[in-house]
């Protein structure tokens, strides 16, 4: 029982942190979140 609650809390925390990261990156204007070449990506020029 206790291990189920802990596992659920860990999964919920991971989903929350991932969602927060995606939100912050989109707010900054990133097109390809997590891509190391985001600043020089050709998608940025095409979408503008």
Please, could you describe this protein's structure?
It is a single chain. The protein has helices at residues 2-28, 42-47. 0% of the residues are buried. It starts with a helix and ends with a helix. The protein has one domain (2-47). By secondary structure, it is an all-alpha fold.
Write the layout of secondary structure elements.
Blueprint: H1 2-28, H2 42-47
In helices, the fraction of residues equals 55-70%
How many DSSP-defined strands? 0
* Largest sheet features: none
Residue windows where pLDDT falls under 50 for at least 5 positions = none
Brief overview, please?
The protein is mostly helical and 48 residues long.
List keywords for this structure.
single chain; 2 helices; 0% strand; 69% helix; mainly alpha; elongated; 48 residues
